[in-house]
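Supplementary Text 2. Reproducibility record for the structural model of the 239-residue chain.

All settings were left at their defaults, and a single model was retained for analysis rather than an ensemble. We include the record here because the model underlies the residue-level annotations in Supplementary Table 4.
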Amino acid sequence: MVSVEHLYKSIGKTSILNDVSMHISEGEVVGLLGPNGAGKSTLMKVLTGLWKADSGKVRVCDTDVIARPDEVHKHVGYLPEQNPLYADMYVREYLRFIARMRDNSRKSTAESRKQEVDTLIERVGLTPMANKRIRELSKGYKQRVGIAAAMTGNPEVLILDEPTTGLDPNQLEDIRALIRALGKDHTVILSTHILQEVKAICNRVIIISNGRVRMDKPIDAIPDLENAFRCATTNANEQ
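Retained model, structure tokens:
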């Protein structure tokens, strides 16, 4: 489903990702865990084809991301850390616009896109807000809009970068429950620096620090995630 082999990425003279390798199977919910500046967001941008790797191999759903970055957009839904919403658009209007933009084949009819958006609105819990302007929504509902936008076109892989940042406790639990539900039908890669997030949502954790993978294990195989994270990141800083 997602395969990364010996990936390197620098920005200017700064090395961001160093020999990163990982393989993620269909149906997994994987947490990319690491401190701020570890390289998580850069890795996600490479996986989505937004940024090109310096070297290495990256494949998503058998698509060579480096050679065919535009093709991978058919298979990946992406929610960046800074949720890019058009605040003056209505929720339903915005999602229909995104669905039309993502209709790469140009085969979908307006009616089928309308049905898709209505289904998404219901699935992510946006029904009460569907006819409101995005700027009128709470942070939690804006995140739901971003997740719904990422799901347009029914991509096999969802990549979510810090999806619960800035949420209050009730919103936090609602979005976590939504992501857990999405994991039943999609492969989900979730970036965070919050350990509780990984334990609450993911079935596998990949710890990244200083641009390298420091640990890759099923969450059930890590009895003390806090200690494992501390050891992995402390050892990385000492190298």
